[in-house]
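Sample pair:
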Amino acid sequence: MDDFSDLSPYSIILSMENITALAIDLANIGEISPAVEALEKIKPVIKEKGFYLKYLETVIPKVYLKHSELFEEGLELALELEKYTGDLEEKEEKIKAGIFVSTALLRMGREKESREKLENLLNTYADHPLVCFEYASLMEDTGNIDKAVEYYVKALERKEELESSTVEEILDRLAFLVITHDIKLEEKYSSLVNAYLLER
């Protein structure tokens, strides 16, 4: 794993992906130290070959934000990713980085900073469905139910831009809030929630 000099570019990419996948699997079964060791060993090669953005977008949510002992490192990597994406024109990459920072802060118990980060994202990307979803989740988790419903609905307004699993999660959370808090939705959103419940 230490020497990739004789490999073709394609073989390097494949090796990086395989090692990253192995590290994620190790972390998932609680083998945190070897997982992090493997990721640290391939990081210099990934940086050198120009794959660092994809690497960070993969390992931050799947390793560093899933295990409490890695939250601090996860925040450092998320801030690094945010800095890395700062000059990019692609807004999706910037949004993803900002959400990772917010998530890391929240999981470290820094709720106020997490909320501020999401609110800054909302100021810049007010109607982006993923930002709305993350903000709604935070509002729900902190007991602000009306705001949570408002922003879940905002996310649904552009649901075609979200992954199907995220749309299902929004509908599931909305259904729970509607039932437990006797909330009335606009007809089109109420119909979406009811259709989702019927399919379950």
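Residues 98 and 183 are 31 Å apart (CA to CA).
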